[in-house]
Known about the structure:
The structure holds 2 protein chains of 2 kinds.
Chain A: E1 14-16, E2 19-21, E3 25-27, E4 50-51, E5 68-71, E6 74-77, H1 86-99, E7 104-108, H2 113-124, E8 132-138, H3 155-168, E9 175-179, H4 186-195, E10 200-203, E11 207-210, E12 212-213, E13 218-219, E14 225-229, H5 234-249, E15 258-261, H6 267-276, E16 280-283, H7 286-289, H8 293-307, H9 313-316, H10 319-322
Parallel strand pairs in A: 3-16, 4-7, 7-8, 8-9, 9-10, 10-15, 15-16
Antiparallel strand pairs in A: 1-2, 5-6, 6-14, 11-14, 12-13
Helix pairs in contact in A: 2-3, 3-4, 5-6, 6-8
Chain B: E1 4-7, E2 15-27, E3 30-36, E4 49-52, E5 65-68, E6 71-76, E7 79-86, H1 91-97, E8 104-111, E9 124-129, H2 136-145, E10 150-156, H3 165-171, E11 174-179, E12 186-187, H4 190-201, E13 205-209, H5 212-224, E14 228-232, E15 248-252, E16 258-262, E17 269-271, E18 280-281, E19 284-285
Parallel strand pairs in B: 9-10, 9-13, 10-11, 11-12, 13-14
Antiparallel strand pairs in B: 1-2, 2-3, 2-8, 3-7, 4-5, 4-8, 6-7, 14-17, 15-16, 18-19
Helix pairs in contact in B: 4-5
Flavin-adenine dinucleotide (FAD) is lined by residues 49, 63, 65-68, 84-87, 89-93, 131, 134, 234-238, 268 of chain B.
Amino acid sequence: MTAATPPSSVDMSVDLAGVRLPNPMMTASGCAANGREMHRFIDVAQLGAFVTKSVKAQPVSGRGTPRMAETPSGMLNSIGLQGPGVQAFVEEDLAWLHSIGARVVVSIAGSTASEFAGVARAVVRSRYASAVAAIEVNISCPNVANRGLVFACDPASSHKVMTLVREEVPRGLPMLAKLSPDVTDIVEIADTVLKAGAHGLTMINTTLGVAIDVDRLRPHLIAATGGLSGPAIRPIAVRAVWQVAGAMRAGRIRTAPIVGAGGVRTGRDALELVAAGASAIQVGTAAFNDPTAPERVGRELEALIAERGFTRLSEVTGIAHERFTP
Amino acid sequence: MSARTIAAREGAGVVQVDAEVLGNSAVGAYRHLTLVTPGLAEIARPGQFVALAVGDGTSSMLLRRSFSIHRVSPAGTYGATTEIVVAAAGPGTEELTRLEAGASVSVIGPLGKGFPLPSQPVPCILVGGGYGSAPLFWLAEQLRERGCPVEIVLGAATADRLFGVVEARRVADGVTVTTDDGSAGTRGWVSDVLPDLIARTGAGVLYGCGPMGMLRSMSAIASDHGIVAQVAVEEAMACGVGICMTCVMPVADQHGTTKMVRSCLEGPVFRGDRVRWEAFDDGLCRVPADAVGAPKEAR
Ligand SMILES: Cc1cc2nc3c(=O)[nH]c(=O)nc-3n(C[C@H](O)[C@H](O)[C@H](O)COP(=O)(O)OP(=O)(O)OC[C@H]3O[C@@H](n4cnc5c(N)ncnc54)[C@H](O)[C@@H]3O)c2cc1C
Ligand SMILES: Cc1cc2nc3c(=O)[nH]c(=O)nc-3n(C[C@H](O)[C@H](O)[C@H](O)COP(=O)(O)O)c2cc1C
Ligand code: FES
């Protein structure tokens, strides 16, 4: 029973590197499965875009359990990119998302650069490609060839992935690079992937953590380390967006839209990321608490923007940079 | 504060409500909570569960906690209510057991697949470990409505951790109680009394809810006797609604293919002989090497 939204005076539409989205709200990859389960609570076709779980070429079982630990205002996960493989993804999940009229950002992953390209090719050449609004390249997974080093932590590897994927993605379809905060200089990685042809950036993926089970005195997760997400990491996400948007404004790197992710639970949280420079917002872990969160946050964000006297979302994007005097 | 529906899409079979706590009373070592849940009680079935949020939208405990539905009353004086039995196991359940009448709590349900009911009036044995017995009494009533003779076995570490002995006597043809320390009923485990009970009653189905170890031995005993066990598992869950992939377990399908399936969506009730019990060890569950998409051995 979604409350009827009063007609708003705020234009919430987003220009995502040439693709128009009616609103900035997205799910975050891996936090809404592939849509059907969340569709029981909200109409996922009403979101700006639905972001799928990262899909690899072949089926992946993911890790054993426990693969989750709750932490203060967040959680650690080591799901291990569980998924059906791109062929089943296209035939079942993308087909379904297409059938309900959703705008889909397909998140792709791989253990090698050519695996990424193969997955992208299978998606964009599929008969449901018209539902795809963008490809999000999850370079935050480990590079098998490079002894498990995460692609997004290494400029050369991330450059190679983006270059190969770009060759598969047709003109007009934005390619977003999803960055890890676990790097020395996120502006350098942003610069690299933009030079390799990324049309936009998604920031941030989870940041690495460990929880110890103090009864058994051993790591809580079967994989020991996991990705930290939830409100606990919001300041890190705001920082990443702030630094990269700042570099774009200063002309140090190419300008491109930024999709903000990390710890968004309310409209205020989303507004922080927008003011720091994000044009669109993904809601991840908060949906585990409230499956309506991706839609609710959008409503709250719109009300906050209206309250502050703006008529367009785009007027607020990055405004904190203008109002900051060092 | 009264109950309010947050999300309920037509035909979704699940609702999200801000429920009002109608009652919270002590039962042995547990708390018995009655929640006003419009739209939920009407569609729930035994074996399904609910996922409760801890605190409000600012709580630092972000993940929902799952509880078996003890029973539902679709049309009580206060409208539709759902009852659950909560053991204070950690910070989240401790906070939930402190909820007072009149308080509000976010509830999502009914979730998961319930216990399948036999089409024939076969004798059934229902086995509950600790608070795991919570969903069994409602199940017993439904089985008896179908003409199935029902035996209930309740086991726990100590007498105060048993749940529902009196209620069991009301809804079953026979009740057996076991405790590890002998403080009530027979000393020992439920698995000690099961073989005799199966032989005596000619049971065709075992239903179980409780700790994994108990469900595993129940499943083995059922297989030994050539009968089916339907067990409600408890895997750590972050969302309960199928969007996080944290609650997976290795389960074989009817063709024998093992997949890591979401216990919140495909479960919590599984056929005991389909669960790959050997994968569970000392609080961990490893991916069986023959599971779909299992990691390849050292590259
Ligand atoms: C389908 C199902 C039905 C359940 N029914 C009941 C019931 O009727 N009564 C009852 O008292 N308890 C029940 N449980 C167990 C209950 O959900 C956990 O005890 C509870 O989640 C632990 O929360 P906590 O805050 O006390 O512990 P914490 O350790 O702080 O929990 C942290 C996180 O881990 C998860 N978690 C930890 N332990 C468990 C566990 N044993 N099972 C599932 N998730 C866990 C929590 O949900 C939470 O997300 C059920 C669990 C499941 C999956
Ligand atoms: C359980 C879980 C699974 C995730 N799976 C993926 C994934 O497959 N691909 C990806 O790019 N990010 C994945 N993420 C990261 C999220 O998309 C998001 O970047 C991160 O959680 C930060 O946002 P949040 O704090 O709103 O959750 C996952 C996060 C969680 C919690
Ligand atoms: S608990 Fe989230 S998918 Fe099962």
